[in-house]
Design goal:
Blueprint lengths: L2 H20 L2 E8 L14 H24 L4 E3 L42 H13 L2 E11 L12 E10 L5 E6 L20 E4 L2 E5 L8 H10 L4 E6 L10 H12 L2 E6 L10 E5 L2 E6 L8 E8 L31 E5 L2 E7 L4 E8 L2 E9 L8 E10 L5 E10 L19 E8 L6 E7 L9 E3 L5 E3 L7 E9 L18
Length: about 500
Amino acid sequence: MLPSQALLPAVVFALAALQALASNTFLAAVYEHAVILPQSTDLPVSPSHALALMNKNMDVLEGAIKEAARQGAHIIVTPEDGIYGWRFTRESIYPYLEDIPDPVVDWIPCTDPTRFGPTPVQERLSCMARNNSIYVVANIGDKKPCDSSDPSCPRDGRYQYNTDVVFDTQGKLVARYHKYNLFRSETQFNYPKEPEAVTFETPFGKLGIFTCFDILFYEPAVVLVSKMQVDTVLFPTAWMNVLPFLTAIEFHSAWAMGMRVNLLSANTHSTSKAMTGSGLFTPEGPAAYHYDSATEEGRLLLAELSTHPRLSPTYPPAINWSSHATSIKKFPGENDTFSGAVRRDIFTFSELRHKDGNCTVCQGDLCCHLVYQMSNKSEDEVYVLGAFDGLHGSLIKYHWQICSLLKCPSTNLSTCGQPVETAQTKFEMFSLSGTFGTSYVFPEVLYSGVQLAPGEFEVLRDGRLKSKHGTSKPLVTATLFGRLYEKDLPHPLRISPEVSP
C-alpha cells in the first residue's frame, strides 16, 4: 500500500470531523409507514414469498428515502416492523430473518452482498443509503444459530432478535441493535442476554439507537443519554397510542424534553391498531410531528436539528423536579378526593370545581400541587388533579410517579381517567409540580384532537410545569410523568422462549 493510500482514511475522517465542527445543525427525516402486512399464518412461507412482501414495503420506503435525500436530509429513520409487519409466530417469521453481522466487520452489503450468506434486505437497504448519500435506519429481524453448548439455546437451535440497523452514506453497516425490552406480544423474538448500548459517531454528532418499548426503561434508553452522552437518539417504533399519558407524540416529545436530547421517532401507521404519531423531537420541544388517525397514508417529516444540543444556547437547564413542590405548604382540598382508574392504575383525584384556584393531591410519597385559571368553566366538562405513585403493568411491573391535570370524559366522576381526545376548555394559566423521588420526569401537554403545544409551556428549574401565555387550544392533559427505575420489579420474561430443559 502506498503511504498516500494509508493516509486516506485518516484524511477522510479529519474532513468529516471538521465538517461536524463547522456545522451546528443537520437535516433529519422520519417516515411514518403504513405497512403492507403478510397474510396471517402459523406456517412459514417460502423465502421468496417473504422477500416479495418485504420488497413491497421497501419500495415504499425507498420512495421516502429518495425524497428525503432530495430535500437534503442527512439521515432518515423508518419504523419498527416497517419491512414485514407483525402477524407472526416464532416459526412463521423465520423466512423474513437474515443473519446480521456485528458492524466491526466493516461491510458494505451493496457492493459485497454474499459475504455473509443471503442478505437481500440488507443489500437493498445498503444500496438505498449509498445511492442517495444518506444514513438509513431500518428495523429487521436477526437470526443467530446456537447449539447445546449454550445452555440457553432455544430448542430450534437459533436466537431471533428484533433488530435495528443503520447504514451510512456509503452503504456501510455502522450499527446493529437488538431490542432489549420486548413488548408482551413479541413472542417471535428472543430477549438478548445483556442490554446493548449502541452508539456511533457521525459528522452530525454522536448517535444512539433503541426501539419502541425500550423508551420506558432505564436500559438502554437512559444509559445512552446519561452515561454515553449521545446527541441524538434514533427511535424506530410500532407504538399503539394509549390515552391519557402514552400517545406516541405526547410521550416521545416529553421524553426528549425530560432527557434533554434529540429523538427521531418513526412510527408505523395503522388506524386499526391505533398506531400513528411520529416526530423530530428536541430538548426544547417538537421540531416537527405528525398524528393522523383518519387516513391510512404514510407521511415524511423533515426538520433541522442541533448537531450538539448540549452546546446550543437554547439548551434547557437541569431541573430539580421536587424543589418547588417540597418548599410549599399543601393547598386545601387534599381531603376532598376520590379514587379512579387510568387503565389498571388507581389514581387519587380531586375535582377542580371552580374556574380558578389551587389544589393538592397526594398518594404514597408523591404530593401534586396545582395552581390554575380556566378561561371559561363549562358546566359539561370536568377536570381533576390526579396523583399516582406505584407499580404499573400487569406482567412487567415498573414504577411510575405521575401528577396530572386531566379532563374527564363526562361529568360522571367515575369516568375520570378513561381516554378522552377532545375538550372545549382553555386555561389562562396552569402551574403543576410534584414531590418527585426521581430526576427522570417527562413533561406532557396535550391539546384537544391529540395535538402538542410547542412553545406554549415551560419547565422552570424548580420543577414547575407552567403555561406561558395560556393555552391556545382546549386542554386534554398537562402531566408530569416520573419514572423510578430503581423500584421496578425484576423482569419476569427475560429468558429465551422455548429454552431446552
